[in-house]
């Protein structure tokens, strides 16, 4: 029984931010019961606490921070979403903020500073030690969304001529080492990285072994000015754990670890998904309706204008529709099916471009594949539509028109889904940014045009 109760207690803690706990926390905040609030917050991971702050209202957030602000540490601060980070920073007492920031690595401090206004940036910079402040300011001097902003300046280095024993003695002696690191980077006298050694190889080798004899084949460097999406690609492509960052003279200036690279990869994926849906940024759970509408309205207005093109095409066939009223009911079948097919092709293409699986080298084969898939899908859907028109409407000719229009629009959808993002990528634009609007317009306009055009030619 005791073992079962203990297991249930552990499982409850692992659940993290469950609704019952959130409700209890808000009740404690409303009652001003700081002791009860501390008991409820204590088992939560920093990420769960950050989620809690994001999910509750702004008023509840201010009250919670006022009652519990002394417990906010650097780990929690780094987990808080950028949409509310400035509000949280402003709500924290100066001494709490100072202590929290001092716990962070330089890359986490830079990540926080990027989302704050200048007054809040100055407060945090003043809280840092001189050496850390200089390191953070140097990192902030690199372009936004570059490797220089992503790296941490705390780097463990060793000369090429050291042995395992000398390195281990150095690591045990030094107190400034970062909380987490995976490699010892080997540098020449000019601080240019030459190789690295994993901690596993270091600890499993004899003290007399030279570091240069146990280096890893995966060694490579990243320029501080490289875009962060290139960094994420390199980590994912070559299965890196950490990677040295160099300046224009190839001298070591920092290191990027896998957690930061994967955060960038996740952000890139989320951004692509949102843009494909016509949303410029992900809303925070605490955002109001006006903030949410502001991010979506521009694309809805664009879609309004593109939809008018479809309306114009339909208006050109008023006489055809007036003669065969059934066409009005059947038009959406062709257009909507084409839109879905285009979205399928588009999602695959945008993802392939993001992972660099779709390049100029294999673009032709990918286009031919999409054409073949579109043709096969079109034939299958055309057969179903034609059979339905014959059995239900008793109109073989109408079935033939539907079949021809469906095949045409499936080919258009397949081609548009790959050519539109390729074209945008070729001219330097984000393929996820406007591809959805263009592909939907193509399938709608050409779907209506094909269906009504074939109907005019063959049925009138």
Our count of domains comes out at 3
Please summarize the sheet with the most strands. 3 strands, mixed
Q: Report Rg.
A: 29 Å
Principal-axes shape call: globular
Give the spatial strand order of the biggest sheet. Answer: 1-2-3
Question: CA-to-CA gap between the ends?
Answer: 82 Å
Uncertain segments are 1-15
Here the CATH topology of the largest domain equals Tetracycline Repressor, domain 2
Helix content: 55-70%
| Strand proportion | 5-15%
- CATH homologous superfamily annotation of the largest domain: SLC41 divalent cation transporters, integral membrane domain
The helix-strand sequence is: HHHHHHHHHHHHEHEEHEHEEHHHHHHH
CATH architecture name of the largest domain? Orthogonal Bundle
């Amino acid at each position: 029984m005791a073992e079962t109760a203990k297991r249930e207690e552990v499982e409850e803690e692992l659940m993290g931010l469950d609704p019952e706990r959130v409700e209890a926390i808000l009740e404690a905040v409303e009652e001003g019961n700081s002791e009860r609030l501390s008991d409820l917050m204590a088992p939560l991971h920093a990420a769960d606490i950050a989620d809690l702050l994001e999910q509750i209202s702004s008023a509840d957030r201010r009250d919670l921070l006022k009652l519990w602000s002394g417990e906010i540490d650097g780990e929690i601060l780094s987990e808080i979403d950028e949409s509310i980070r400035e509000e949280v920073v402003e709500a924290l007492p100066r001494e709490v903020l100072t202590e929290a920031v001092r716990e962070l690595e330089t890359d986490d401090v830079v990540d926080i500073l990027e989302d704050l206004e200048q007054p809040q940036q100055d407060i945090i910079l003043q809280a840092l030690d001189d050496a850390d402040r200089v390191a953070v300011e140097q990192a902030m001097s690199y372009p936004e969304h570059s490797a220089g902003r992503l790296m941490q300046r705390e780097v463990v280095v060793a000369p090429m001529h050291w042995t395992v024993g000398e390195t281990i003695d150095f690591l045990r002696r030094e107190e400034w080492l970062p909380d987490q690191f995976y490699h010892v980077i080997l540098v020449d006298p000019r601080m240019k990285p030459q190789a690295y050694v994993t901690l596993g190889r270091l600890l499993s080798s004899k003290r007399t072994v030279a570091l240069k004899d146990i280096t890893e084949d995966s060694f490579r460097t990243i320029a501080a000015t490289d875009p962060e999406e290139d960094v994420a690609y390199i980590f994912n492509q070559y299965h890196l754990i950490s990677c040295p960052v160099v300046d224009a003279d190839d001298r070591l200036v920092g290191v990027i670890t896998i957690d930061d690279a994967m955060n960038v990869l996740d952000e890139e994926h989320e951004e692509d998904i949102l843009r494909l849906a016509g949303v410029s940024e992900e809303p925070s759970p605490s955002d109001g309706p006006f903030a949410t509408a502001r991010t979506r309205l521009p694309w809805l207005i664009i879609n309004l204008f593109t939809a008018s093109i479809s309306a114009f095409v339909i208006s050109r066939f008023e006489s055809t529709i007036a003669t065969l009223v059934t066409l009005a009911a059947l038009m959406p079948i062709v257009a909507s099916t084409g839109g879905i097919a285009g979205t399928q092709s588009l999602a695959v293409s945008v993802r392939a471009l993001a992972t660099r699986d779709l390049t100029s080298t294999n673009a032709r084969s990918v286009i031919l594949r999409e054409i073949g898939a579109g043709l096969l899908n079109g034939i299958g859907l055309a057969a179903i539509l034609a059979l339905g028109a014959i059995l239900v409407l008793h109109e073989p000719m109408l079935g033939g028109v539907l079949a021809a229009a469906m095949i045409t629009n499936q080919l258009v959808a397949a081609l548009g889904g790959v050519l539109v993002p390729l074209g945008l990528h070729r001219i330097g634009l984000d393929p996820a940014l406007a591809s959805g609007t263009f592909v939907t317009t193509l399938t709608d306009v050409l779907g209506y045009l094909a269906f009504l055009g074939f109907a005019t030619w063959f049925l009138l």
